[in-house]
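HUMAN: Ready with one sample?

ASSISTANT:
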Amino acid sequence: MRGKQKNAIYLRLSIEDGATNVENRNQRDESNSISSQRRMLKEYISKEAELAGQETVEFCDDGFSGTNMERPGMQELLKEVKQGKISCILVKDLSRFSRDYIELGTYLNQIFPFMGVRFIAVNDHYDSREHGGSTIEIDTAFRTLLYDLYSKDISGKVKSAFESKCENGEYVFGQVPFGYEKSKTKKHMVVVKESEAEIVRRIFAMAEEGMSSTQIAKKLHEEQVPTSSQMRHPQRKAAKEHCSWNHEMVRNILNNRFYLGEMAYGKTVRKFVGSKTGVLMPREDWKVHPNHHEALITPEVFERVSIFRPGQSTKRKREKHPLVGKIYCGGCGYAISYKPQRNGKIPRHFWCRKHSLLQIPECCTYFNATVLEEIVLNEMYRELMRQGELIRQRESLEKFQKEELRRLGEEKRVCKEECCKLQKEKAALYECYALGELGVAEYQKESDKKELQIRELSCKMKEIGEEYDRIEEEYQSPKMDMKQIIRFMGMKQLTQEVVDVFIERVTVYREKRVEIEWKFGEIGINLT
């Protein structure tokens, strides 16, 4: 049911729109353009008698592009529209709402008319009420198309400006690689951060001595050398009990040509204007700016120790086990890895890759995958049988719930009839008053009495409805569980679907003890 409806004013300013003041965006709360939009729309509402009589709420996106609808303020607005809380949306012009021609047309021609929402774009002199739900006029259509083309033009200019800055050697990216920091004196330049650079040089030195990435990570962990995250965000040190270096972190450093003094850009290309994701370009298509900053190592050292080689792919097609992501080591608490069978020698198994680094005695260094699958399937079968028996024992409870649903339904029906009766009596009172059969004081007294009774009945019906919904959910839930149980009782192997439906977490220990946390309970077993 719809509540009291409101006017909604939507304000938006993108970074491109405010390009002339980009440098000062962090020093202000909101742009002057946002303030201007707000003032214009409120003045328009004050002059419209119908709109001025309603509550007005504001939704704002300052610094967001209009090329897509993934904006926090926009999403909140559309959420309230779906809930039937908004009767009218007002914007400065159509481009504030969206610069996508097709998407804007969909909202104006289909969604808003269906939801009964009036749409007003003040500067474009557009009011959906004047169109009667029909398609927008041809001049408005062309205008929205121009906004779309303008957005694409702006995107091209921003991209061109970005590439121009990169070509000129300016560092315009957000994150700076470990070992460097942004210069405090020269804008868009990076300089060596000696406290971090010392660690980077040492990693390359250890690799040059023949140490593997795992051995380097272990050495750094033993010496309690802080990671990049720990050095740059010291408040997060205690976030994880065993936060430490790992071989992937070391490999990323050894493979990063930024330490040669090179800055690469053009690594990804956006699929379309407004897209948040990009397509990774081939390495040979990357644009490289050599001698961009001070190098930490020489090309000879990088060539000897870097793991990456042109023409060689480091990606491997691995067999994904359904338990991966839900299975953890009981010793260290980290997720453990799965290793498929290779060359018919070592069987499929799970192992804790953190053991070599952390050296925790309780870590599960090996657990045969076939054995673990049989354990999980057997215990799952037993648990499903137990759950099925519990559901069958609920028959007496279901009988009570069914009776309660019938009683609540009847009580709600009686309340509704009584409410209708009171409303008719209230209407009859007014007729008597209009005919002069009742005085003002007597009419007001009786009318207020009826109104109070109606409100009390409405509150009671609401409470009954909430209780009815709760019991109905409890009544239906075991039936759904039983359908799942019947569906999976004949399973013969562990599949991803089975794991996702029933298993929350599996913990394995060195002594071959397994704990399984189900999505409907928890059990533990011990293998000896």
